[in-house]
Write a structure and sequence with these properties.
- It is a single chain.
- The chain is built from 9 helices and no strands.
- The protein is mostly helical.
- Helix 3 (77-100) packs antiparallel against helix 4 (104-126) and helix 6 (141-152) packs across helix 8 (168-181).
Length: 194
């Protein structure tokens, strides 16, 4: 299992002291003031943010497969790791929405896809692309995702459906449509698992 990509919320740091060039009154002005006093600054306390246990469990459940998928799409381990970390970080801010959706994995998959799209735009300017990119230039995104998950990541239909937050029938349909759209020799090669 890879190191956790689930973002941890570090304690908020205390503000840095003002530069030594000002006088003592400037130092006091830099601190937030108590509403009842013009002299004493607010005490600064560390703030610890607790991530919901369900969110952390979700991250631990899916981060390895997300990383394998992102690396297949990006062709680079470091970029794949950064993409997954960004997607899971965005998921933390969307977690209440994800829980109210039909399946949290669907929201997470959309966030991961948008992070990959953003990263691909930056990478395409420098010329690097993942080995799976020909599929994404040939097929619609959802079909290409199903093909990559089945044939590159080697997930079965149920696992692919769970990962994308859709029904298994949807994955089966996407694969069938992809096989019908690809050149026959390529589709036969995929069905044969080579």
């Amino acid at each position: 299992m890879t190191a956790a990509l689930c973002p941890e919320a570090p304690p908020c740091a205390r503000p840095a002291p003002p530069a030594a060039t000002g006088d003592a009154r400037d130092a006091v002005r830099e601190q937030p003031r108590r509403p009842d006093s013009d002299e004493a600054p607010w005490p600064v306390a560390e703030l610890h943010i607790q991530l919901p246990p369900a969110y952390r469990a979700f991250c631990l459940l899916y981060q390895d497969i997300y990383l394998r998928y992102a690396q297949a799409r990006m062709g680079d381990t470091d970029t794949g790791r950064r993409v997954v970390a960004n997607a899971l970080g965005r998921l933390a801010t969307h977690w209440p929405h994800a829980l109210s959706a039909s399946h949290p994995a669907e929201v997470a998959w959309e966030l991961l896809s948008s992070e990959i799209t953003r990263a691909r735009a930056a990478v395409s300017r420098t010329g690097g692309m993942g080995a799976c990119e020909v599929l994404y230039r040939t097929l619609p995104l959802a079909q290409a995702d199903a093909v990559v998950l089945r044939h590159r990541i080697r997930l079965d239909t149920q696992s692919s459906a769970d990962l994308m937050g859709v029904e298994p029938f949807t994955v089966t349909c996407r694969l069938a449509l992809a096989y019908g759209s690809l050149p026959e020799a390529f589709a036969d090669c995929l069905r044969g698992g080579t």
